[in-house]
Amino acid sequence: QIKALIFQGFAYYYMGEIEETSDIVKQLMRLIEEEKAPLDINLHIFHLAGMIYRLKGNITKAKGFLDKSIEIVKQLKTKSLYPFVFETMASVHIAQRKYLKARKSILELKSIGEETQNMWALALAQVNLLCFYLLTGKLAEALNLAPNLLKTTKKAGKGYFSLLARILVIATYAEAGKKELALRLLRNVMLKAKKMEAKYLILILHSEAAKLYFDLGKKRLFFKHLRNCLELMQNNPYRYFYNYRDSLYAFIAYQSISQGIYPEIGKDIIIIFLGPNGSKALVPYLKEAKLEVKEQLKKLIKKAFKYSAPIIHIRTLGDFEIKVGNKIITQWRSQKAKTLLKILITRGEKPIPVDVIMEDMWPEADWRSLKENFKITLRRLRRSLEPELPPRMNSSYVYLKNSCLYLNKEKILVDAWEFKKKVKNILYKKKEAFTEKDLEEIENIIEAYKGEFLPQDLYSEWASREREYLRNLYIRLLETAIFLAKNFNFYEKTVSYLELLIIEDPFNQKAYEDLMNCYIENRLYNKAIKLFKNFKKLLETELGISPSKKILELYPRILALMSH
Terminus of the chain with fewer CB atoms < 10 Å: N or C? Predict the structure, then answer.
């Protein structure tokens, strides 16, 4: 049954039925969660998931599944049987513009083909190498490779990928100005793609045909293929359109908007597919566009840049670390820029008046110099987070509006903010309503508290109130966990939480009393005595006081129990 589902999923994928493939992937993922699929079957499921997410444009998720596939391939030591996995990973690296990794994957694929005399593995390597050349502008290398690719795919004899290889050759000829040659090949491939009902390939062919006929001045055929291309995208829920040439994306998007043919799709192409490359790819069209269209394009370029900006994860508990996408920021434009970000995090998720920020950062500075200092620091912060931010482009992360500064909550995730939100949800709940599942959730939240807030800024006044507030939340969460663990008779957990509470609040007499009682109930008398003596010494040394009456009464009781 699982194998049948996998075959069905791949069949839908190659037919361009994206929604149906996605539904099958969801079903297969449930089977993995239920541990009903063996390792070699998991490989195919992860590969299919990687392929579908790649086609839908979620490259990060695609790479996650493909990493799992490759891990299984290496475990099974069956590289030669699964060249497609390496081909998909190579295409993902190309889409991410990670050229060194792409080249490495292509060479690995080529090596598999040469070692095993697998013509199809060699064809896949050449397909991705041609994509690589097109994307990096190496047109001479692409032209040299194109005839060899056609020969290799002919020997390999695989229908779908043979057509895909020919489409890449068409793209190469089109880019090189060999338009008539490209069109002859395109007409032949279009017939075969339609016969195969491969919607994805038909879509790409229509886009290539639209550009070729436009360049040749054949308006009627240009409009026909442009409309067919956009209609296919309109009728697909994901509007997929996957190739390696920003110039073609830009052409289709511009014509869609300027001609008024499904303009919403043109906008999606700019925002989703072109992303940060939109400003460069659309330059030729900004020069020729009418004023109204030009203004639309400029707005879409800005929107695309923000849309493509990676998520920033900020760690503030126990350490300070910023990860933009998968890259940790180690170099800052200035320490003041770093401090400004910390203040924005500390002051919360709401807009903060600039005057308040300036007082925090330069408490004794001359007022006249403050505004200039602030402007410079804000610019440096934005550049630290987005080094490639184009001139006069608004930041994707730090906003200034109505003399208030704030962070983009959709793009910036802060561990302290998440911690506060989760703890408050727990504390609002009545204790009688808690279940064992709630205790598991509390355990995860406790684990997330890696230490005090911004430990490198212990003596900064602007951080002290938030630090103490988070610490008190953590203590209250531990007290809730202790209460529940006792109620559910989880001895080890109760002891563990009490120990954590004592570490965080070393003078908490109630915590020591409860922990001593836990030790007594489980006949760990020596531990209870040691705990008592350590606490008594701590109080006398640090505060000059004795333990509470209840704790003092426990000591003779322990001695009496030990003597029996």
Answer: C
Token pair 């703890």 in the structure block, residue: 423
What residues does each domain of the chain span?
312-414, 419-563
Number of Cβ atoms within 10 Å of the Cβ of 348: 15
Buried b / exposed e over 35-58, threshold 16 CB at 10 Å, is eebeeebbbbbbbbbbbbbbbbbe
Q: How far apart are CA 443 and CA 361, in angstroms?
A: 37
Q: What is the H or E stretch that residue 258 is in?
A: helix 246-259
Rounded mean pLDDT of the chain? 88
φ, ψ of residue 389 to 5 degrees: the values are -65, 120
The count of C-alpha atoms lying within 13 angstroms of the C-alpha of 398, restricted to the half-sphere facing its C-beta, is 24
Q: pLDDT at residue 453 above 90?
A: yes
CATH 3.30.360.10 fits 312-414, yes or no: no
Distance (Å, whole) CA 378 – CA 395: 10
Secondary structure in 3-state letters for 343-409: HHHHCCCCCEEHHHHHHHHCCCCCHHHHHHHHHHHHHHHHHHHCCCCCCCCCCCCEEEECCEEEECC
How high is the pLDDT of residue 236? 65
For residues 309 and 53, give the distance between their C-alpha atoms in angstroms, rounded to a whole number: 19
Task: Provide the 3-class DSSP secondary structure of residue 422.
Answer: helix
Give CATH for domain 419-563. 1.25.40.10
Both tokens of residue 290?
A: 């009418």
- Report the side by side order of strands in the sheet with 352-353: 352-353, 404-407, 398-401
Contact 490, 498 (CB under 8 A): no
Global pTM? 0.70
Q: Give the CB-side neighbour count of residue 508, counting CA atoms within 13 A.
A: 20
| DSSP classification of residue 317 | B
Closest CA to 486 of 434, 429, 524: 434
Alpha-carbon span 426 to 433, nearest angstrom: 11
**Cβ(340)–Cβ(361) under 8 Å?**
yes
Which secondary-structure segment (H or E) carries 322?
Answer: strand 321-324
pLDDT tier at 244, thresholds 50, 70, 90? low
Q: CA 509 to CA 515: how far, in whole Å?
A: 10
Q: Which residue carries 């900006």 as its tokens?
A: 309
The radius of gyration of the chain's CA atoms, rounded to the nearest angstrom, is 31
Query: 312-414 and 419-563: same fold?
Result: no
More confident of the two residues 214 and 366: 214
Q: What is the DSSP string of 167-222?
A: HHHHHHHHHTT-HHHHHHHHHHHHHHHHHHT-HHHHHHHHHHHHHHHHHTT-HHHH
